[in-house]
Amino acid sequence: MKPGRLYPFIIALLLTLTLTDLEPAEAFWGFGGDRTTGRNGLDLDRGYDINTVSTMTGRVLAVPHPGEGNNIVIEIASNNETVTLCVGPGTYWDKNGIQINRNDEINAKGSKAQGKDGKTYLLAQKITNQTTGAQVVLRDDKGDPAWKGANTNSMRTDRSPARSGGMGGRMMRGGGGMMRR
Fold first, then answer.
1. 152-157: which pairs have CB atoms within 8 A and are 24 or more residues apart?
2. Which whole-number Å values give the CA distances from 126 to 10, 32, 77, 84, 179, in the listed order?
């Protein structure tokens, strides 16, 4: 084979390799190194794994406070370990979060993960303050965050529901309901 005939093949191969994502997939961690926000290495938006969903009960050690990035976290003591509940962005929690005080009894459901920092995290789907009865739903059953949706006022149960318009306050998906031919 002549050397000149290899150039198009080599260029096509290099282009293919360049355009292909060569980074390994890591469960929970990063999904691409530049998207992680800190030491824990967890992707708090897309790292929810329905295969690791569990429910835990514990006593609040630290009230909601900023964690890594703009995310709010709550620390609880559950089964002789400290678990960090990741509840979403501060802007969402400030508007939709529930009152949580130190020593309150909390029931939390979510995706359990081990951070690169060795700590246990729960990417919370639902939190119930058993002391006050207040409850907040942070993700749907598939793990999609409520703060990514259209109606963020309907997730709390400790206040009256928000008024909603014609379509129940929710955006229609799939092109806004327009007919297609």
1. 152/92, 152/95, 152/96, 153/95, 153/96, 155/96, 156/96, 156/97, 156/98
2. 52, 27, 17, 14, 36
For the record, the structure tokens of 117 come out as 């920092």
- Is 141 part of any domain? yes
CATH of the domain at 83: 2.40.50.140
Tell which wins on pLDDT, 22 or 99.
Answer: 99
Q: What is the pLDDT of residues 81-134, one digit of tens each?
A: 999 999 999 999 999 999 999 999 999 999 999 988 889 999 999 999 999 999
Distance CA 181, CA 175 (A): 13
How many structural domains compose the chain?
A: 1
Tokens of 88: 């979403």
**Which token pair is 147?**
């703060």
- Distance, CA of 19 to CA of 130 (rounded, Å): 51
pTM of the model: 0.64
Whether 93 maps to a domain, the answer reads yes
Q: Which domain holds residue 54?
A: 33-148
With beta carbons less than 8 A apart as the criterion, state whether 87 and 124 touch: yes
